[in-house]
Amino acid sequence: MTTTQQERPLAVLVGVQLPGVDDVEHAADLAELGRLVHTLGFDVIATVSQRRSALAAAAVLGEGKLKELAELTGGSGVVPSGAPERKNKARARRAAESGEGDDDGELGGDDVDDADEDGVGAAPDAGGREARRATVVAVDHDISPSQARNLERATGAQVLDRAGVIIEIFHRHARSREAKLEVEIARLNYVAPRLRETGGGGDRQRGGIGGKGAGESALELDRRKIRDRIAELKQELSGVQREQSTRRALRQGQRRVALVGYTNAGKSSLMRALTGSEVLVADKLFATLDTTVRALHPEVRPRILVSDTVGFIKKLPHDLVASFRSTLDEALEASLLLYVADASDPTFRDQLGVTRSVLSEIGASEVPSRLLLNKVDRLSEEEREALRLEFPEATLLSAKIPADVAGLREAIIAFFEQSMVEAELLLPYAKQSLIGEIYENARVLSEEYDDAGGRLSVRAHPAALDRLRSLLAR
Predict the structure, then answer these.
(1) pTM flag (> 0.85)
(2) What residue numbers does the annotated binding site for GTP cover?
(3) Which residue stretches belong to region Disordered (predicted)?
(4) In the CATH scheme, what is the code of domain 254-417?
(5) Exposed / middle / buried, residue 208 (Cβ in 10 Å: 0-12, 13-18, 19+)
């Protein structure tokens, strides 16, 4: 009995190398887009790249490269006019007399050569079957709705820009109610300007209760529905975020560490190693969209809470940054930020810059931080030594090596220990119910009782001590 594995749909990447972008950065951007598209469930079969001073206003690429792209997708390579062509007998007669050479003459010579070189069209494969064509074109830029439509007309394939790819991945990976609401709002904001009229949908129709407004077209009706839906989602999200704020308020004063960094840098692997929790670990982009909070394991007193946050990426859509503001508040309210970078990635310095830029946007740049260069097990000793010289304050480690994780745990504990002070608390017999609160927020060094109550020698953070004294004084 033979089993056939379902074939993944195919995609083509499109990138324009703009002035100021060197070859290395351009290649890294396209490689990252390829990983995003693969995470979305497509196999990348080709990349079409072009150097230009700006994106072509009509369809991103020049005519020659557009033809080359169309050979991969089975399209015409020509952007048809949106208006119906008027019948003109004189024009038709002149076209017949001039022959068919005009179309070829429109293409620049260099572009035609490029298209012929890479010809990955409908040539048969080794089994004699017609080669599969790409059904999706992923563009490594934010493009306008009209550019996307023109590309779709020229290629016959679905077109997604970088923002669209990221939003779709977020949509598929969201698990919690909060994440689903945030992503849906961002997705609707992305879709609204890209709606288009279909068929005879432009006709104006009369209004009615619950129906279209006076003179409202089908397109306008769809956009109004989207606006109404976004308003509903925002209202529901507001309620969910109030609950999250309440939970965070309950953790106020507790010692908190937030793992932040580029997507797929290994934050969730470190989270699992530090806390012993079964958080999702996957070698794909944006596997984690929901903030997870767990206690450092083995536990210490007072407890140290570790949170795993959503990863960052270059050119992260603004709507997603805004939507995930509440999720990123976990970083803003942390006592310590651990910047996690994949040291085995040649572009990790740029990735680290992206992380710091986004956190600066939300005002978290002033939070004390430490740099963790993760995945050093993939590097040679010479490469590790070079990193130590370049980043003397960083911690080099691998989440897969228990000794490295143990060392990080001790460093986290030491960070909080340096700000703790010793004090004595008097716990009256009438307030014995607060003993659990004291043990939760301080380390009790000794405990003695006399006629006035319990005298506890404790070590705690000054803010926690002030809160405990306030509770005892009530």
Answers:
(1) no
(2) 261-268, 286-290, 308-311, 374-377, 398-400
(3) 74-132
(4) 3.40.50.300
(5) exposed
